[in-house]
Design goal:
The protein has helices at 5-15, 53-59, 89-104, and strands spanning 21-26, 29-34, 37-43, 46-50, 65-66, 69-70, 73-74, 78-81. It has 109 residues and is of the alpha+beta class. A 6-stranded antiparallel beta sheet has the order 1-2-3-4-8-5. A two-stranded antiparallel ribbon has the order 6-7. β6 (69-70) and β7 form a beta hairpin. It starts with a helix and ends in a 5-residue tail after the last helix.
């Protein structure tokens, strides 16, 4: 699955020169890693965000958020934010920061 390059450009601009963040192409997706741990990415035309189990469950109650699937399997502890709910950079940045906050709590790789 190809990813939305315009959304990837917006994510790159918000991540900027954030220390410890790198990007990597994986499985047709562009992911952003914080200290070696995946935090968020662009999957198709949406944003995927890695969260704790509790934060994932809470996020699923928000509009435009669902569980992403890799093939036919749900991605555990990840959420997908649909593009219609990423219209402004403040909202996009909020989701990115949630993923970075989660990754920050994991041991560096």
């Amino acid at each position: 699955m190809a990813y939305d390059e315009s959304l990837a450009t917006r994510v790159r601009a918000l991540v900027g020169e954030m220390p410890g963040v790198t990007e990597k192409k994986m499985f047709g997706t562009l992911v952003f890693l914080f200290q070696g741990n995946m935090s968020c990415g662009v999957y198709g035309d949406g944003l995927i965000v890695r969260l704790s189990p509790d934060a994932s469950a809470a996020a699923l109650a928000e509009p435009g958020v669902r569980v992403p699937e890799m093939g036919s399997r749900p991605m555990k502890n990840w959420i997908m934010v649909d593009p219609d709910h990423l219209a402004d950079d403040d909202t996009l940045d909020d989701w990115i920061q949630r993923g970075v906050l989660h990754a920050r709590g994991l041991p560096a790789k």
